[in-house]
Amino acid sequence: MAGAFARGKQLKRYRRKWKRNLIERQNLAWNDLAVGLGPRH
Questions:
Q1: Distances, alpha carbon 35 to alpha carbons 9, 32, 40, in Å
Q2: Hydrolase among the record's keywords (predicted)?
Q3: In this structure, are residues 5 and 12 in contact, taking their beta carbons and an 8 Å threshold?
Q4: What is the pLDDT, as a whole number, of residue 41?
Q5: Backbone φ, ψ for residue 33 (5° rounding)
Q6: pTM of this prediction?
Q7: Handedness of CA 14, 15, 16, 20 (dihedral sign)
Q8: Alpha helices in the chain (DSSP H)
Q9: Which element (helix H / strand E) includes 11?
Q10: How many helices (H) and strands (E) does the chain have?
C-alpha cells in the first residue's frame, strides 16, 4: 500500500500528456480496470 501511495504522489508531478501516454501504452481502449474490484451488492 505504501508503494502505491508513493507512486501516486510521484505521478502527480508529471504532465497530463505524459500520463495519457502511460495509460494508453497499457490500456489503449481506456477500459475501466476497477470494474469488479469493489464489494458486490
A1: 23, 6, 11
A2: yes
A3: no
A4: 65
A5: -80, -10
A6: 0.47
A7: negative
A8: 2-12, 16-26
A9: helix 2-12
A10: 2, 0
Distant-in-sequence, close-in-space partners of 14: CB < 8 Å, separation ≥ 6 = 22
**C-alpha cell at position 35:** 470494474
Express each pLDDT in 1-41 by its tens digit.
Answer: 788 889 888 888 888 888 889 889 999 998 888 888 877 76
CA distance 8 to 38: 20
**Is the CB of residue 33 less than 8 Å from the CB of residue 27?**
yes
* Sole residue written with cell 476497477: 34
How far apart are alpha carbons 30 and 39 in whole angstroms? 22
